[in-house]
Amino acid sequence: MRCLVEFEQKLNTFDKEFGLTATVKSVKDGEVKKRRKVSRAQKLRDAKQLEEQLREAERSRLTKDTIGPQTEDDYRELLLTNKACSATWIQYISFLLAAGEHERARATARRGLSIIPFEEQKERINLWIVLLRLEVMYGMHDSAAETALAEACSNADDYTILTNMADIYQENEMLD
To answer: Are the C-beta atoms of residues 124 and 155 closer than 8 Å to each other?
Structure first.
């Protein structure tokens, strides 16, 4: 019996290696079942059908991409492919804010800052600015924005962060 199993495995390996259909499908208990060879026309039909399925999947993917992500899973999938893109992180944060998830939006901004590499300073500054806006608008206490500002200044260009923070304060009418 062990010999028959080994024979079947070798036959399947041979079949995959050379792209042929096996004449013996399985060998069990001395019984031999034969399988018909697939004709060239059938192979072409199968290839065309597979190609059409792939084109349809691509079309639906493109349609989905033009509409944009609409669920949390869509955003997570998009973030897997665009980890270093601050625009993707900001879209996801906006999605969470629209759903009323302020704490999760703040945590997502921090996660984005930890994932985007330091070499991508412009992308990181964009996320810092979003985090500062979150702290000013939805911060639990007054010192949350100052703490985030100090952290942002120590991790990014001070001048850019401070000028953007002044703009944020001005937009929220917090300047005297």
So the answer is: yes
